[in-house]
């Protein structure tokens, strides 16, 4: 798609030179930086003040080795991220103040990072390197382009762009060191390799968010730092070739099967790339009008529930952390008012976390803020969406409002990116708050990306809103999938139907299992989940798991009550003649899960009272 666009152009002179490219003001443009909002100035300067005397942490090799020894990735990554975040804090504060107060510390940070043995994460040794797989330590020659190395390159690239004049006034060697390290560690390896799995050039290897994420960082380096015109052009064209794979293999309905949190670095990073290509080509390379590009952007508001809450199927967090500059900018480029509205309604970006530091996005956010503020403050709250290819539905009780019931459900298969075994799973919210949930995932460890991934309890179907038969759960793999998925709207109701029988292995003994998800909109709105099942022989080892953040309380016969907000409740009704209910409290000790759900969640079990071979099971949920 992108290469096809370029093929129609006379390539020479299509792209602006590095000196001509001005995506936003550098630090020398005092007028632009003085015009930054007082809130942003205070936010960034007060943050940088905390690191004025920062002692740059050592990256200890014992922590690098801890991945293989103990499965720990964070002992090394936390100081690795801290170095980068602090450099970003200081760079933005220096641009805002323009007094030179932070320059010495910024230079310290630049050289600390440039002197690191490797910019790769410890995880790179387990799933990127083709040699020395048993090696515990990095080598200075291990220049592989992964998320960490490319993000580091992007941070240094934009630090250079913002502060080059100030650096040169102190010593030209600062900028030269950045140019050399980014080129040697990222840009040249990128050109020399077609075998990085995320590029999309290997047969049978599927790409995910890594493709646009890594490509966006690499593109930034070629556009801003590369002086050789031939190499620069080669790099830009290769990025476009790789992005074409991502676009061509993306779900045509725009659905990101990794979830909205990862959309920030799949669809969101695609936007970063397309924005830069459009700008660098003086609008000659522009594909924002392509239907698939529009659908990838629209996905975000289709799965937005309220505030930070989004539909969190797969590994993503329920509190996805909306990035207003990405949503608003993407919406503006594809001329979609709903996406612009979502971006404008997003609260001020939180800063201060020690994590990836996307400097490009932070600067864009600062200079886009006034336009967003003038646009509006309310999210679009779309009423319905159906993404047929991915088999995902969303429906809310009231268009344009978080009030009322919200239902999301999925079919799909169990080889999705960042997959959980969750074919036929669903979630329910009330008034924008969680009631029946998809847990998401704990903080990543080496096991998360290992063959033992699905031994992790929160990835298993028994800890999703799904049935378990004869103790047999769904299994991972592409052949374990939904079939006969359909969707319809009739009257005021929205309904999805799907057969989930093939998501379970044969030992479950399932002949057929049809599941429907229905949002009923009338004076007494309700969510109805109905299962019609047939088994090859009777069993009483049949139960339904229902995951909730609300402590269940016994209601009238055949019901239990969930309080989702002080004084606000839903009642869940079930067939008490066929099923008996109980629940367990699951204490959460992982900080990532706690950040979404607090200190505990509850697993409700509806268990068959007697052996069954076929039947219908139904739950009905209403606000009371």
UniProtKB/TrEMBL annotation:
<feature type="domain" description="Heparinase II/III-like C-terminal">
    <location>
        <begin position="408"/>
        <end position="577"/>
    </location>
</feature>
<dbReference type="InterPro" id="IPR012480">
    <property type="entry name" value="Hepar_II_III_C"/>
</dbReference>
<dbReference type="Pfam" id="PF07940">
    <property type="entry name" value="Hepar_II_III_C"/>
</dbReference>
<protein>
    <submittedName>
        <fullName>Heparinase II/III family protein</fullName>
    </submittedName>
</protein>
<dbReference type="InterPro" id="IPR008929">
    <property type="entry name" value="Chondroitin_lyas"/>
</dbReference>
């Amino acid at each position: 798609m992108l290469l096809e666009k370029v093929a129609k152009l006379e390539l020479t002179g299509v792209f602006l030179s590095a000196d001509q490219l001005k995506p936003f003001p550098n630090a020398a443009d005092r007028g632009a930086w003085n015009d930054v909002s007082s809130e942003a100035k205070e936010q960034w300067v007060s943050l940088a003040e905390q690191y004025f005397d920062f002692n740059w942490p050592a990256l200890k090799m014992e922590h690098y080795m801890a991945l293989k020894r103990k499965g720990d990735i964070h002992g090394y990554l936390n100081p690795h991220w801290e170095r980068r975040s602090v450099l970003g804090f200081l760079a933005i504060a220096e641009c805002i103040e323009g007094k030179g107060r932070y320059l010495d510390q910024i230079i310290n940070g630049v050289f600390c990072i440039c002197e690191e043995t490797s910019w790769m994460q410890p995880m790179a040794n387990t799933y990127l390197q083709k040699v020395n797989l048993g090696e515990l330590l990095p080598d200075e020659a291990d220049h592989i382009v992964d998320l960490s190395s490319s993000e580091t390159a992007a941070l240094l690239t934009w630090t250079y762009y913002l502060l080059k004049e100030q650096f040169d006034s102190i010593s030209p060697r600062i900028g030269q060191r950045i140019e050399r390290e980014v080129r040697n560690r990222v840009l040249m390896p990128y050109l020399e390799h077609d075998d990085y799995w995320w590029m999309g050039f290997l047969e049978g290897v599927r790409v995910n968010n890594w493709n646009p994420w890594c490509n966006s960082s690499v593109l930034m380096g070629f556009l801003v730092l590369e002086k050789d015109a031939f190499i620069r052009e080669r790099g830009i064209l290769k990025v476009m070739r790789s992005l074409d794979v991502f676009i061509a293999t993306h779900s045509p309905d725009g659905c990101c099967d990794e979830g909205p949190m990862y959309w920030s670095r799949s669809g969101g990073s695609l936007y970063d790339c397309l924005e830069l290509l459009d700008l660098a080509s003086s609008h000659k390379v522009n594909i924002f009008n392509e239907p698939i590009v529009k659908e990838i952007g629209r996905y975000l508001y289709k799965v937005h529930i309220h505030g930070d809450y989004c539909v969190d199927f797969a590994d993503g967090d329920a509190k996805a952390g909306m990035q207003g500059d990405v949503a608003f900018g993407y919406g503006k480029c594809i001329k979609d008012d709903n996406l612009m509205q979502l971006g404008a309604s997003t609260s001020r970006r939180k800063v201060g976390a020690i994590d990836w530091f996307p400097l490009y996005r932070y600067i864009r956010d600062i200079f886009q803020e006034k336009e967003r503020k003038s646009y509006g403050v309310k999210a679009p709250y779309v009423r319905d969406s159906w993404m047929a290819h991915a088999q995902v539905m969303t429906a809310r009780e009231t268009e344009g409002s978080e009030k009322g019931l919200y239902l999301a459900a999925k079919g799909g298969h169990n080889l999705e990116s960042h997959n959980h075994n969750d074919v036929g799973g669903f979630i329910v919210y009330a008034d924008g708050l969680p009631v029946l949930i998809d847990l998401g995932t704990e903080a990543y460890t080496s096991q998360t990306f290992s063959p033992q991934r699905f031994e992790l309890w929160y990835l298993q179907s028994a800890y999703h809103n799904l049935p378990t038969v004869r103790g047999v759960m769904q299994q991972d793999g592409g052949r374990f999938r939904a079939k006969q998925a359909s969707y319809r709207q009739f009257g005021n109701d929205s309904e999805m139907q799907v057969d989930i029988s093939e998501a379970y292995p044969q030992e479950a003994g399932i002949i057929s299992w049809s599941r429907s998800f229905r949002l009923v909109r009338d004076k007494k709105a309700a969510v109805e989940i109905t299962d019609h099942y047939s088994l090859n022989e009777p069993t009483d080892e049949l139960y339904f798991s229902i995951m909730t953040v609300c402590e269940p309380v016994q209601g009238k016969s055949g019901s239990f009550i969930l309080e989702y907000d002080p004084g606000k409740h839903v009642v869940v009704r079930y067939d008490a003649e066929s099923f008996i209910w109980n629940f367990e409290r699951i204490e959460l000790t992982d900080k990532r899960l706690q950040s979404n759900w607090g200190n505990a969640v509850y697993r409700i079990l509806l268990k068959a009272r007697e052996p069954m071979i076929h039947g219908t099971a139904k739950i009905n949920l209403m606000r009371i």
